Inverse folding.
């Protein structure tokens, strides 16, 4: 160990670190200690979200939807504007079906590639060799991703294939809890169906997920 | 008969099963290092508090995804640092590292006056701290994580979102720049 490193380590004891707040009681307050209670809470939150009108959604600070948490911020944090898509391990459709019993909208029924990551599935759709859309499917109820959207973004309540959904029409930041750094996201459509949450990221997400 | 000490792995497993008290204990064990890591990354005590608080809630919600048998602290610090990076202010003044007040560093009552050598060491610490403050945010963060907080290379990599090899090379370069700030030969 060099003398300088040793000096830095001694210096640590002399630094006036800010006092650590008491976190424990607040960290667990309001969270749910079991999967069953968590599922009931998610259902309650989703029902609560659906009870709100579109205007109310726009004014709400934090929205929870099927494992996605949407927060409003005045300024989006700095992120890599050209990130690598961390989609996971390539698999075949037959393997994907063994992981999750998903149902794809008609216009998304033929993905160019399928990947799995952390129990979720990622369906990639290409156009002229470049990503046009990414559809992520994961189990509803588990905390899976955070979205940071600008306070001016108008989040819309929509129906997708008859299922409840939310549409984030603007570019925003998405943070998959265990999938690399936060990154910029294109407009995104979220919906829940059959115990699964679907997240479609594409400039024309509403059109791609429609029934037609 | 004395009760056996509860290992961290036991606490993690209990917390994964929904035991809030076990999770509280994990938080208490790691809240200092989590908060200081968040402070080094965000540069603000208020942001660090928000980041750590949010990270503890996120980690609790996500314990089901925690890989059984893996070390808990790097996983937690990665979530904390991620939250802190989201809150890092692009504008505005970063809070500086400062030394505790001299009165707090005096020997306890009845102890001998500090010898001159100790005073010299104190002066050296002022110089060292000032040199640290002149480094870039990235250099200060990596030296802060590695040598002020005592995080291992793997934990620093998780906290700063770097590869382990990158931590090693960047630490070495940051130390060289610190020596240069101090006017010392590399």
């Amino acid at each position: 160990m060099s003398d300088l490193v040793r000096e830095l380590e001694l210096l640590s004891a002399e630094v006036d670190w800010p006092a650590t707040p008491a976190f424990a009681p607040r960290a667990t307050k309001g969270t749910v200690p079991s999967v069953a209670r968590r599922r009931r809470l998610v259902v309650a939150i989703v029902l609560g979200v659906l009870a709100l009108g579109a205007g109310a959604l726009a004014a709400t600070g934090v929205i929870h939807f099927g494992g996605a948490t949407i927060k409003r911020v005045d300024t989006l944090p700095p992120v890599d504007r050209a990130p690598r898509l961390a989609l996971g391990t390539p698999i075949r459709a037959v393997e994907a079906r063994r992981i999750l019993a998903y149902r794809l909208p008609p216009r998304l029924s033929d993905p160019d590639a399928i990947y799995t990551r952390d129990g979720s599935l990622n369906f990639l759709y290409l156009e002229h060799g470049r990503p046009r859309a990414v559809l992520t499917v994961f189990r509803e109820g588990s905390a899976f991703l955070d979205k940071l959207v600008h306070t001016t973004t108008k989040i819309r309540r929509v129906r997708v294939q008859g299922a409840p959904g939310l549409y984030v029409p603007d570019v925003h930041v998405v943070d998959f809890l265990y999938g690399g750094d936060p990154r910029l996201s294109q407009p995104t459509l979220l919906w829940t169906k059959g115990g699964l949450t679907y997240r479609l990221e594409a400039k024309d997400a509403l059109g791609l997920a429609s029934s037609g | 008969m004395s009760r056996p000490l509860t290992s961290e792995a036991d606490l993690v497993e209990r917390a994964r099963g929904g035991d809030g008290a076990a999770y509280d204990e994990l938080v208490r064990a790691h809240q200092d290092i989590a908060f200081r890591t968040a402070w080094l990354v965000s540069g603000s005590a208020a942001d660090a508090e928000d980041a750590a608080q949010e990270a503890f809630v996120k980690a609790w919600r996500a314990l089901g995804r925690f890989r059984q048998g893996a070390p808990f602290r790097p996983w937690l610090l990665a979530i904390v640092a991620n939250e802190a990076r989201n809150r890092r202010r692009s504008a505005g003044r970063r809070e500086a590292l400062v030394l505790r007040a001299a009165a707090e560093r005096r020997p306890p009552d009845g102890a001998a006056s500090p010898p001159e050598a100790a005073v010299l060491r104190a002066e050296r610490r002022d110089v060292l701290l000032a040199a640290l403050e002149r480094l870039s945010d990235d250099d200060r963060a990596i030296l802060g994580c590695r040598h002020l907080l005592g995080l291992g290379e793997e934990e620093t990599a998780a906290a700063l979102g770097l590869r382990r090899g990158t931590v090693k090379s960047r630490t070495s370069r940051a130390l060289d720049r610190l020596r240069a700030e101090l006017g010392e030969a590399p």
Remarks:
- Chain A has one domain: 30-209.
- The first helix of chain A runs from residue 3 to 12.
